[in-house]
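Protocol step 4 of 5: obtain the predicted structure for the target chain.
Materials: sequence only (see below). No template structures provided, no constraints applied. The aim of this step is simply to have a reference model before the mutagenesis design in step 5. Sequence pasted as it appears in the construct record:
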Amino acid sequence: MISIKALAESPGLTSIPPKYTFTRSPNDEAVSDDPEESIPIIDFFLLTSGTPDQRSKTIHQLGKACQDWGFFMVINHGVPESLMKAMTDVCGEFFNLTEEEKREYGGKHVLDSIRCGTSINASVDKVLFWRDFVKFFVHPQFHSPSKPAAFREISLEYSKRSRELAMELLKGISMSLELGDTYIQNALNMESGLQILIANLYPPCPEPELAIGLPPHSDHGLLTLLIQNEISGLQVQHQSKWVNVNSTPNAFVVNIGDQMEIMSNGKYKSVVHRAFVNEKATRISMATIIGPPLDSVVGPAREFVHRENNAPAYTGMKYKEYMHLQQSHQIDAKSCLDHVRILPA
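Step 4 output (structure tokens):
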């Protein structure tokens, strides 16, 4: 299949092929223009290195962000801005490889350790999305494309630093659930947990009002950490409206994934989000998905359920089975969670 980049650069392209036309519902058009309505900001330095009082307040803010929004922005995180820029730049260089070079990393299965393609899963998507991607597993074993020359070295360092950040955030989230700072890491054996890097390219689109970069969906892991170039394109669903998440230099956008919703028995819910496109500029984003080991069965935390005196709201499922289920079917918001949701009697 031709890449979106190649399609977008076709001479004289003034309209998109019909298979890229994404039908929106009236509710999908409600976008909040309230400048006060924006995702919460978490100061990572205060979370990890502040006074006991500052740490306690930041953990409370983190829990409130997880419960009210499922999305938050992390500042003062310690990951060098130069490394974040290098990661974004080298991803741009990857997408500038020839079509033949990128096809070397085509992959065929959603659980392949390296997979490059377009849309999400073009074999099942009824509508194709204005997006090219390269996805590769970086933990517990590190995999990476070998082209361009600096890609492997930069992505290895970036994956290490972003993982350290994610592990500290998981400690804070675990504390906000009053489970102790190491509960999530120990209960889910996060030392062997899966980490995936996904680079996304959204080229200029001649009819951005008809196409979409990524449709409304939730993420399958525990946490997702996102950086992007200076072009905005992420929208989060909040209180029945879409809220723009503006591109902020040297900050990570973090969101709760489905496995965290399951583990917290629904207290912290994964949130539907989407990527839109524009007709002038190329957007590049890099998502780091943090999940448990592929063979881990994730269910509601027993200690949490017992303490809250609530019945489990989800059944357990192996993480790799959940990933395969989500990635092998047409994406439909959070419908994948319905497969593990326990309906009230």
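Step 4 remarks: The two ends are 47 Å apart (CA to CA). The chain has a mean pLDDT of 91.
Proceed to step 5.
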